[in-house]
């Protein structure tokens, strides 16, 4: 009886210190993702891998919720070590074969890992640490430049791979956390001008022709329905065919007949609509909104600036992925390759999101 009581005490202690609603919502959407992938037509290996990724994510989320986040808050050397390691890891894909013309993945034993996803999480930790130490000096342009350099290094590497979507999200994380830290309007306007000029320069000198075609094709996919516009057209058809209640699990015609490309990743939002209709999309969106709101609530109640800023950064990380992915699927943005949080197939983004949730739960526990 004693071992059982000991285990039950551990479980009770774990749940007494965390946000149970946040935990339950994350686990629920992960379980739905596995169910959804199987219905789309994912083979047993793909579905099993996603279940394993979710299991690993839940374990890491639970472990990090016990880890005292103040180690990040108080140790600059620890945070910088993680940052340098993440940057070096981000360079590793250049030594592996490209996938669909992009060198963004490390390939080990048949499994692929995308270092850019982990880099986004480490960047949030670093920005929370940097800005929380200098919240009264945030409008010193020197600190804006230094923090921008921390973001620019990994963003530039991802652009070269080339992974435009991840580079943009890194920039959004930095800018959003800078605003949360209290940057004034004059400096914000200057950064927006610099960002506009950088965007023009990237279009002219960095983006490859296929990326430019992808960006332009979303404006009028009907111009090339069998080429660059094919994905967006099929995505819209899948969403429209789903109507309100969908065609049923394993009965989505666009996914079942192979018309929708990348239904497990880039177009998971449309594939979900194909099966579960508008009701499914609203349910998934509501789950994301609930996750975001619980994170913001934890950040609001945090006793440290680090906790508040990290929570804001994680919300930006999750919300930006969700908004961009959904916008791509309905034709409001060009295809970027950004996964939908917790729903798309793949371990890199899922585990990174769940590790971030674990740190937020630690902020809740130790606040």
From TrEMBL:
It is found in: Membrane. It is a multi-pass membrane protein. Its main location: membrane. GO terms for cellular component: cell division site; plasma membrane. GO terms for biological process: cell division; regulation of cell shape. One of its GO terms (molecular function) is lipid-linked peptidoglycan transporter activity. The lineage of its organism: Bacteria, Candidatus Yanofskyibacteriota. It comes from Candidatus Yanofskybacteria bacterium RIFCSPLOWO2_01_FULL_49_17. The chain crosses the membrane at residues 20-40, 46-67, 79-99, 105-128, 140-158, 164-181, 188-206, 276-297, 309-330, 342-360. This is Rod shape-determining protein RodA. Keywords: Cell shape, Membrane, Transmembrane, Transmembrane helix.
């Amino acid at each position: 009886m004693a071992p059982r009581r000991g285990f039950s005490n551990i479980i009770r202690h774990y749940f007494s210190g965390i946000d149970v609603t946040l935990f339950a919502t994350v686990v629920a959407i992960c379980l739905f993702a596995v169910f959804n992938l199987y219905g789309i037509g994912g083979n047993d290996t793909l579905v099993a891998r996603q279940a394993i990724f979710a299991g690993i994510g839940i374990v890491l989320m639970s472990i990090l919720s016990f880890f005292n986040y103040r180690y990040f808050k108080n140790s600059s050397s620890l945070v910088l070590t993680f940052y340098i390691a993440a940057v070096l890891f981000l360079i590793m894909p250049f030594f592996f074969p490209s996938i669909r013309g992009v060198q963004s993945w490390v390939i080990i034993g048949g499994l692929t890992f995308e270092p850019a996803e982990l880099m986004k999480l480490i960047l949030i930790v670093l920005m929370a640490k940097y800005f929380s130490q200098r919240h009264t000096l945030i409008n010193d342009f020197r600190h804006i430049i230094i923090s921008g350099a921390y973001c620019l290094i990994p963003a530039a590497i991802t652009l070269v791979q080339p992974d435009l979507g991840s580079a943009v999200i890194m920039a959004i994380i930095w800018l959003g956390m800078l605003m949360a830290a209290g940057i004034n309007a004059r400096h914000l306007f200057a950064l927006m001008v610099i960002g506009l000029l950088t965007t023009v320069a990237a279009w002219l000198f960095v983006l490859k022709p296929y990326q430019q075609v992808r960006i332009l094709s979303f404006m009028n996919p009907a111009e090339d329905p069998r080429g660059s516009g094919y994905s967006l057209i099929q995505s819209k058809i899948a969403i429209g065919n789903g109507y309100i209640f969908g065609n049923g699990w394993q009965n989505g015609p666009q996914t079942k007949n192979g018309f929708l490309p990348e239904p497990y990743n880039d177009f998971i939002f449309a594939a979900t609509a194909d099966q579960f209709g508008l009701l499914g999309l609203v349910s998934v969106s509501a789950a994301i909104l609930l996750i975001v709101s619980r994170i913001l609530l934890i950040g609001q109640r945090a006793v440290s600036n680090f906790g508040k800023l990290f929570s804001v950064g994680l919300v930006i990380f999750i919300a930006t992925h969700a908004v961009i992915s959904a916008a791509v699927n309905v034709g409001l943005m060009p295809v970027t390759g950004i996964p939908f949080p917790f729903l798309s197939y793949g371990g890199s983004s899922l585990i990174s999101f769940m590790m971030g949730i674990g740190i937020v739960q630690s902020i809740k526990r130790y606040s």
